[in-house]
């Protein structure tokens, strides 16, 4: 794997009385990795080369507060652009022929302070999204004959639009209640439109859909948060209705390396992109409680819970949805030291989609201890260094990732211990 990234950013604060700040970011990346596989002689050989080159820029302007009859209005306006060249090649013909994606968007975010404890936030985004590539055409059952698929140059243009509106209310005991509504559109990505080959990393033979439409999500969410005090928590409930939800569907076919090999058996699971209307509803809770001072630090406990239920509008299950999870831990933290022991239980996932199998639950036990040293502030050199020891899957459970297409063949890592260090400059 080879990856080169370059990023620059800048900010001009208070250039005029009407403008609080102007910011920009620009980044470029060049990524390539090789996928190996066994050839006819059982020797490792180069199968796919995946290349991804990206450019992205963003400009933001914070305007000064504007007095209105309802309260002070503050906000940010901006623009964003991006260019992406993504493709694969190799002895297998490649998962994805060369594609080019260009995006340009304008956006705005505004907040109005009605009272000292009540504020409203609104945001909007309009985007132009152009994707160019080779559109594949497969038989309706995704099986040969013919032994090859046809391709023709394609150019898809999308104009997704998004908007959101939220109310935030400060409550007693440092709590904040939120109520949000969102309308979010997403354009199909190049791999979703134009894939047509084997993906060794996921163990799949992927078939794109060049006729995909914009995906639209309408979400309502309520939340309650407390970020200060002895007890800190964040909880949310949401309901999302998708129109033309984009997903990968297991077809029931299997392949080796090429489309001509697809049939009833093979090492690769054949998946095809499709769209259906769907409903997602879920909840998430995280909490942390300080129990008592201990030494020069604080001893406490934490907990978490999350669940998502996703169905198509006919009541059948959306495939590859993560299971319900619940967990907690004990921890101790000082200015320099941090230690935690935590257990996360994932429940059995029986809400499976077409051609999908259930996944057993598991218990994931983790431990960590680390020390952080803060250096004297200088113009150059490191500001902070953390060194620690972390243990993962200490019960050595057999863990299968339900959202992975290779869950039946590949277990998640077993018991492991690693030494790590992070340095901040």
Q: What is the CATH C level class of the largest domain, in words?
A: Mainly Beta
Work out the number of β strands: 20
Please report which band the strand proportion falls in: under 5%, 5-15%, 15-25%, 25-35%, 35-45% or over 45%: over 45%
Q: H/E element string?
A: EEEEEEEEEHEEEEEEEEEEE
**Secondary structural class:** mainly beta
CATH topology of the largest domain: Maltoporin, Chain A
Please describe the topology of this protein.
Layout: E1 2-16, E2 19-38, E3 44-67, E4 72-89, E5 99-113, E6 118-137, E7 150-158, E8 161-171, E9 175-186, H1 190-194, E10 196-199, E11 204-207, E12 215-226, E13 231-255, E14 268-294, E15 297-312, E16 325-333, E17 337-346, E18 362-374, E19 384-392, E20 416-424
Parallel strand pairs: 11-14
Antiparallel strand pairs: 1-2, 2-3, 3-4, 4-5, 5-6, 6-7, 6-8, 8-9, 9-12, 10-11, 12-13, 13-14, 14-15, 15-16, 16-17, 17-18, 18-19, 19-20
Describe this structure in words.
This protein is mainly beta and 425 residues long. It has two domains: 2-318, Maltoporin, Chain A, CATH 2.40.170.20; 319-425, no CATH class. The chain is built from one helix and 20 strands. It has one helix at residues 190-194, and strands spanning 2-16, 19-38, 44-67, 72-89, 99-113, 118-137, 150-158, 161-171, 175-186, 196-199, 204-207, 215-226, 231-255, 268-294, 297-312, 325-333, 337-346, 362-374, 384-392, 416-424. It has a 20-stranded mixed beta sheet that branches. A hairpin with a 3-residue loop joins strand 8 (161-171) and strand 9 (175-186). The longest helix is centred in the middle third of the chain and has 5 residues, at 190-194. It is globular.
């Amino acid at each position: 794997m080879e990856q080169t990234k370059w990023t620059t950013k800048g900010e001009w604060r208070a250039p005029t009385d009407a403008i609080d700040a102007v910011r920009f970011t620009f980044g470029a990346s060049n990524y390539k990795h090789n996928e190996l596989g066994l050839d006819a002689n059982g020797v490792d050989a180069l199968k796919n080369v995946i290349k991804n080159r990206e450019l992205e820029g963003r400009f933001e302007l914070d305007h000064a507060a504007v007095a209105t009859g309802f309260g002070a209005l503050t906000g940010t306006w901006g623009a964003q652009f991006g260019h992406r060249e993504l493709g694969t090649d190799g002895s297998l013909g490649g998962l994805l022929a060369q594609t080019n994606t260009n995006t340009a968007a304008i956006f705005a975010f505004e907040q109005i302070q009605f009272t000292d404890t009540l504020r409203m936030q609104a945001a909007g985004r309009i985007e132009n999204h152009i994707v160019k590539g080779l559109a594949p055409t497969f038989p309706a059952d995704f099986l040969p004959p013919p032994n090859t698929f046809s391709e023709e140059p394609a150019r898809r243009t999308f104009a997704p639009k998004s908007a959101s509106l939220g109310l935030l209310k400060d409550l007693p005991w440092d709590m904040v209640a939120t109520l949000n509504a969102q309308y979010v559109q997403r354009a199909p990505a190049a791999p979703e439109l134009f894939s047509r080959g084997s993906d060794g990393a996921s163990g799949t033979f992927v078939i794109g859909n060049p006729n995909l439409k914009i995906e639209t999500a309408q979400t309502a969410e309520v939340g309650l948060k407390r970020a200060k005090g002895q007890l800190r928590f964040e909880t949310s409930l949401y309901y999302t209705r998708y129109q033309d939800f984009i997903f990968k569907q297991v077809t029931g076919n299997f392949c080796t390396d090429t489309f001509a090999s697809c049939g009833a058996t093979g090492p690769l699971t054949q998946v095809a992109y499709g769209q259906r209307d769907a409903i997602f509803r879920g909840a998430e809770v995280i909490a942390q409680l300080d129990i008592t001072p201990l030494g020069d630090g604080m001893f406490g406990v934490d907990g978490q819970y999350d669940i998502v239920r996703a169905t198509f509008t006919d009541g059948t299950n959306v495939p590859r949805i993560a299971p319900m999870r619940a967990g907690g831990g004990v921890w101790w933290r000082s200015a320099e030291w941090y230690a935690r022991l935590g257990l996360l239980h994932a429940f059995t996932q029986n809400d499976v989609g077409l051609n999908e199998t259930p996944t057993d639950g598991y218990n994931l036990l983790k431990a960590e201890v680390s020390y952080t040293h803060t250096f004297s502030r200088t113009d150059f050199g490191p500001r902070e260094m953390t060194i620690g020891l972390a243990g993962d899957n200490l019960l050595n459970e057999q863990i299968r990732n339900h959202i992975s297409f290779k869950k039946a063949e590949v277990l998640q890592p077993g018991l492991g211990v690693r030494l790590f260090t992070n340095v901040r400059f």
